[in-house]
Amino acid sequence: MMKRSNIFILDVIYLVCLVLTSLVSFTVFAGGLIWISFWINLVASYAAITALWLFVRYVMQNMERFRRFVPGYIAIGTVLVIYMGCVIFYGLFTGIADQGLRWFVLLHVVTAAVAFMLCAILLIYIRSAIQHESHEQFNVANLSSIEQALEQLLNTMQYPSNLSVDYDRNRKSVETMIELVKYSDPISPASMERTDRQMLMDIELLNEELASQYGAGEVMDSERLAMQISRLQSRLRERNQQILIHKS
Question: Rounded distance, CA 215 to CA 212, Å?
């Protein structure tokens, strides 16, 4: 309700600004309604006010995104405010602009084009930053899931009451993998996402296989278990090496 009321107030302010701009323009240049420069400046003023209104409205509706990328959005707002200031400044020369109408039109077009290009560049930067942050969060979540799956595997390996030396060695190998995951770089290229997901699936399958065998009163062959853990460990080390090579 608060957001809707704020947006309603913003819409009212926008309409008031349009009305005031019209009143000032038709009052100050009451005798210049036949001037092309007058109508060009009036339309440009409407466009500048509308652009700023749309921007502020978007920010109010996407406040969480704005808080994550404050400098970028503030830069866009600054560009739009400067553009509106330029349009107002150009309006001071409306009375004499018809004598150099081509230059007056060119000035408005160039100003609008520069403002548009700056806003487009800033939007591209913000979008790129959002994608980069989402990718980082996804990678961190993947590593966290792998770590949790390994800890669950370690807990599952404690079920047998008579642990052999080989099983104790396998548990230490899993503990080493957990440490490797903790100190792994979460900022990985997109090509590594499939590797991380496959590794997570393999760990979960191994854990399910162990749990089902323990539940049936059986014990998984220690050599086979050691081979699978060693394979997972090698893949994890290879993953970390590839990330280092990619960043070097």
Answer: 5
Alpha carbon distance 1, 170 (integer Å) = 58
Query: How far apart are alpha carbons 203 and 179 in whole angstroms?
Result: 15
Short-list 115, 56, 63, CA closest to 85: 115
Spatial distance between the Cα atoms of 221 and 15, rounded to a whole number of angstroms: 77
Q: Is 186 helix (H, G, I), strand (E, B) or coil?
A: coil
Phi first, then psi: give them for residue 162, nearest 5 degrees.
Answer: -110, 80
What is d(CA 127, CA 129) in angstroms, rounded to the nearest whole number?
A: 5
DSSP per-residue string spanning 36-64: HHHHHHHHHHHHHHHHHHHHHHHHHHTHH
CA distance 169 to 67: 49
> Cα–Cα distance between 65 and 167 in angstroms, integer?
49
Instruction: Render pLDDT for 128-167 as a digit per residue (tens, 0 to 9).
Output: 888 777 777 777 777 888 888 888 888 887 755 445 556 6
C-beta atoms surrounding 208 within 10 Å: 13
End-to-end CA distance of the chain: 51
- pTM greater than 0.85: no
**CB proximity list for 197: less than 8 A, separation 6 or greater:** 142
d(Cα 124, Cα 108) in Å, to the nearest integer?
24
